[in-house]
Design goal:
Chain B: Tetramer of two alpha and two beta chains. The complex is a heterodimer of chains A (418) and B (270). Chain A is α/β, with parallel strands linked by helices. Chain A has 17 helices and 14 strands. About 2% of the residues of chain A have low confidence. In chain B, 51% of the residues are buried. The chains are: A alpha/beta (418), B alpha/beta (270). Chains A and B meet through strand 2, helix 2, helix 9, strand 11 and strand 12 of A and helix 4 and helix 6 of B.
């Protein structure tokens, strides 16, 4: 037996799933989660949960899902050893899970495919979604075009400004983009507006929520679809290296790329997990999006989790250079694993993320999304503290094409020229 | 800690009896819009007009069930940092006879942040709060909190919507306290209600299951519509139509009194 297959064999016995009992029947991961929505939406959530559970039990649905991921999105995505980057850091080896090579440029398409197939099975004719960086909006508009749904995307007007390229892509794909001019004009406000739309149109509309957040069953459903990231990575790692990585690193906005990578490794006790939040300018109100560093437990947009809020319980606005991490709350399952001590959270600020954006571009010829740049930056910190033979796996959740204009604007503002 | 309980809670003023009590008008106000002095003036007028209750909105930064009119009013009120705990203190300073029975309406995070038990203790000790209306506390999640509200005598209003299946509506109504809030349309506050046979049927159905007043709200935008609703429902909730005038006391009072006059013409009915 070859070394690789022996390793695969050895780990086959190890449990592959996270706690099968979570979430519980009311959608709670321990004390986090739930379904804090208006009564108008509750029957739709109950129907969605039932439809999801029955679809996921149905092998023909799973086959359709994985088939579309393979043929349409290009899965499995490669596992890539970033040799030059690792050499330059002089520490542990850094591996990238290349989610940026998915169709439309980020991991978001996986969840969009899963939910759109489910919506079709439920007989819905219209998809709505919120988007921050625009990647989820593009992914939703894409599957809507392919599967024949009408599509409306809600996007904060601040995000519309800084992600103009993605706005154009969504329109090209046939979606209507509605700028949201409320609150901080970012992701949180787009979610509120999408929830309002859904409560008017719930009969024919599926709300294709883009992250492992919101009311049950969304956190469960999005995690289930995105877990393909971790399942592939785990298999690929065992084949290539013959062991599991010492550490996993992912950026965390709502948390879908993180829980998607982490979940299949949760029971692998030797694998440490690091979630990276947006530190923005500094950890003071309104200047960051590090919910675990500056937040407390609250209830927002359907779920009980860590939330950035002021002493009166009003939700605080956030700031991050990356629109996809610019959000006041975090997925309930990540909150659960954080308090259970299974996932460690830390934050990376705007400047450090921008530096990593440039470093990865220069050393590997890979331009990462600003969101993913936070994870890369943290991996660089971590690599320096670990021996050369250890392995760090970073979820490179998206590519940076959408960000180049914004980065160029920021660099110019700082008087820097490339 | 002992909680001081006043002799007469505002909630006991007028227990509802179907067929005997006058039809219920419940105006909705955003506390602190444009300021608390004006809110106090509106509450005094509502009390002297003999409304069944006032739904007093406490502004929240992310009101997902509200349309543009109430969102905007909440934003105005939040400019001077209207907060739940301070609002309870303020209510405690107003003589009870100047207040109608009050139902505080806001999103669950404000109660959660204060602590549901702390809220209940304080609300109870002021003796000014009959109950709470929490649009994003689902029937399922409310299970964890119902015993607390009940033990402090704070009514947790039950929501039924056009999407609620019949057997679910029955369970909601059974656990409701204070009144049943039937959301007559799908969507957010401030849309326009149309009184369809389905709406009438559902109200009729709900009335058979509960002795609590069954009140219809969302999209009631003129006094005649309110009166028409009182022809088959026990009560009517008027929100955005009044909130729209909150910045102008003259206009608010005029509009409010039009609703009062129209609703007085409705007869108590079974």
């Amino acid at each position: 037996m070859s070394r690789e297959s022996a390793a695969v064999e050895k780990h086959r016995e190890a449990p592959r799933k996270g706690s099968p009992s979570l979430p519980d029947y009311r959608g709670y991961f321990g004390e986090f989660g739930g379904r804090f929505v208006s009564e108008t939406l509750m029957p739709a959530l109950l129907e969605l949960e039932e439809a999801f559970r029955s679809a996921w039990r149905d092998s023909s649905f799973r086959k359709e899902f994985y088939g579309m991921l393979a043929e349409y999105s290009g899965r499995p995505t490669p596992l890539y050893l970033a040799e030059s980057l690792s050499r330059e850091m002089g520490g542990a080896r850094i591996w990238l899970k290349r989610e940026d090579l998915n169709h439309t440029g980020a991991h978001k398409i996986t969840n969009a495919v899963g939910q759109a197939l489910l919506a079709r099975r439920m007989g819905k004719s219209r998809l709505i979604a919120e988007t921050g960086a625009g990647q989820h909006g593009v992914a939703t508009a894409t599957v809507a075009a392919k599967l024949g749904f009408s599509c409306q995307i809600y996007m904060g007007s601040e995000d519309v400004r800084r992600q103009a390229l993605n706005v154009f892509r969504m329109k090209l794909l046939g979606a209507t983009v509605s700028p949201v001019d409320l609150g901080g004009r970012t992701l949180k406000d787009a979610i509120s507006e999408a929830l309002r739309d859904w409560s008017r149109t719930v009969g024919e509309t599926h709300y294709l929520l883009g992250t492992a957040f919101g009311p049950h069953p969304f956190p469960l459903m999005v995690r289930t679809f995105q877990s393909v990231i971790g399942q592939e990575a785990r298999r690929q790692f065992l084949r290539r290296v013959g062991a599991l990585p010492e550490a996993l690193v992912a950026c965390v906005g709502g948390g879908s790329n993180a829980i998607g990578l982490f979940h299949p490794f949760v029971k692998d006790a030797g694998v440490r997990m690091y979630g990276v939040e947006a530190g923005g300018i500094s950890i003071s109100p309104g200047l960051h999006a590090a919910r675990f560093a500056g937040g407390s437990v609250g209830v927002l947009q359907g779920t009980r989790t860590y939330v950035l809020q002021n002493p009166d319980g009003q939700i605080e606005n956030t700031h991050s250079v990356s629109a996809g991490l610019d959000y006041s709350a975090v997925g309930p399952e990540l909150a659960y694993y954080r308090n259970a001590g299974r996932i460690v959270f830390d934050s990376v600020g705007d400047d450090e993320a921008l530096e990593a954006f440039r470093t990865l571009s220069r050393t590997e010829g890979i331009i990462p999304a600003l969101e993913s740049s936070h994870a890369v930056a943290y991996a660089l910190r971590l690599a320096r503290t670990l021996p050369r033979e250890s392995n760090i796996l970073v979820n490179l959740s998206g590519r940076g094409d959408k960000d180049v204009m914004e980065v160029s604007r920021i660099l110019e503002g700082k008087g820097e020229r490339l | 800690m002992r909680v001081a309980v006043p002799d007469r809670s505002t909630m006991d003023k007028k227990p509802f009896r179907r067929g005997v009590s006058p039809p219920a008008l419940i105006p909705y106000l955003v506390a602190g819009d444009p300021d608390l002095a004006t809110t106090r003036r509106y509450l005094r007028l509502a009390a002297s007009s003999g409304v069944f209750a006032v739904e007093l909105g406490v502004p929240f930064s992310d009101p997902t069930a509200d349309g543009p009119v109430i969102q905007e009013a909440a934003r105005r009120s939040l400019r001077h940092e209207t907060a739940l705990s301070e609002l309870l203190d303020w209510l405690g300073t107003i003589p009870p006879e100047e207040l109608p029975p009050l139902y505080l309406m806001t999103y669950f995070n404000l109660f959660h942040h204060m602590g549901v038990e702390s809220f209940c203790k304080k609300a109870r000790s002021t003796g000014r709060v009959a109950g709470v209306v929490i649009p994003d506390l689902s029937f399922e999640d409310s299970r964890d909190y119902r015993p607390l509200f009940r033990s402090f005598g704070i009514n947790l209003v039950g929501f039924v919507s056009p999407t609620t299946p019949v057997d679910r509506a029955r369970r909601i109504v059974r656990e409701a306290r204070g009144f049943v809030y039937y959301v007559g349309l799908m969507g957010t506050t401030g849309a326009s209600l149309s009184i369809t046979p389905a709406v009438r049927d559902m109200v009729g159905q709900l009335k058979q299951w509960t002795a609590l007043p069954v009140c219809l709200g969302f999209g009631v935008n003129e006094p005649r519509m309110a009166r028409e609703i009182l022809g088959f429902a026990d009560g009517v909730i008027v929100g955005s139509r009044l909130v729209r005038e909150e910045e102008d006391p003259g206009l608010w009072e005029k509009t409010f009194l039009e609703f009062v006059a129209e609703c007085r013409k409705a007869e108590p009915r079974q």
